[in-house]
């Protein structure tokens, strides 16, 4: 079983969802936690979201997550409608070899080079 780490923005977005979508989200999280390899459950993202995955919870909604194999943790970054969830994410440098997610109301998406 995998642990789930809820980012602050995920929690805030989750609280704004309709109760039916919250239930589907809960089911999706349980599915990811019980998977042998949660990375295989979602679609890998490309480009500026490389390393992150998208798990479909209904036709319109997605969970954006990342898998940390070292701590056996599923990091839940964002949840929402497909058309909206990606526009809330901006990448900023976190380490010399990667980026971490940050949220903004802007639709501008970038990963500044250090």
Describe this structure in words.
The chain is an alpha+beta fold and 114 residues long. The chain has one domain (3-82): RelE-like (YaeB-like fold), CATH 3.30.2310. It is 25% helix and 35% strand. It has helices at residues 8-15, 19-34, 82-85, and strands at residues 3-6, 43-44, 53-56, 61-68, 73-81, 89-95, 98-103. The protein has a 5-stranded mixed beta sheet with strand order 1-5-4-3-2. The protein has a two-stranded antiparallel sheet with strand order 6-7. Strand 2 and strand 3 form a beta hairpin. The longest helix has 16 residues, at 19-34. The radius of gyration is 14 Å and the shape is globular. The N and C termini lie far apart (36 Å). Residues 91-99 and 102-114 have low confidence and may be disordered.
Q: What's this, in brief?
A:
The protein is α+β, with helices and mostly antiparallel strands and 114 residues long.
The overall average pLDDT, rounded, is 80
Label the structural class: alpha+beta
What is the N-to-C succession of helices and strands? Answer: EHHEEEEHEE
Briefly note the CATH topology name: YaeB-like fold
Count of DSSP helices? 3
According to DSSP, the number of beta strands is 7
- Determine the fraction of residues in helical runs and give it as a percent range: 10-25%
At the fourth CATH level, what is the homologous superfamily?
RelE-like
Main-sheet strand order equals 1-5-4-3-2
The coarse overall form would be globular
CATH architecture annotation name = 2-Layer Sandwich
Whole-number count of domains = 1
Low-confidence spans: 91-99, 102-114
């Amino acid at each position: 079983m995998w642990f789930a780490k809820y980012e602050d923005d995920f929690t805030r977005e989750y609280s704004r969802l309709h109760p039916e979508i919250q239930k589907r989200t809960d089911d999706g999280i349980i599915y990811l936690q019980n998977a042998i390899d949660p990375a295989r459950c979602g679609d890998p993202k490309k480009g500026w979201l490389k390393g992150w995955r998208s798990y479909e919870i209904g036709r319109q909604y997605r969970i954006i997550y990342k898998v940390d194999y070292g701590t056996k943790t599923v990091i839940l970054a964002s949840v929402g409608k497909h058309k909206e969830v990606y526009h809330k994410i901006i990448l900023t440098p976190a380490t010399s070899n990667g980026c971490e997610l940050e949220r903004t109301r802007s639709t501008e998406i970038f990963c500044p080079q250090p």
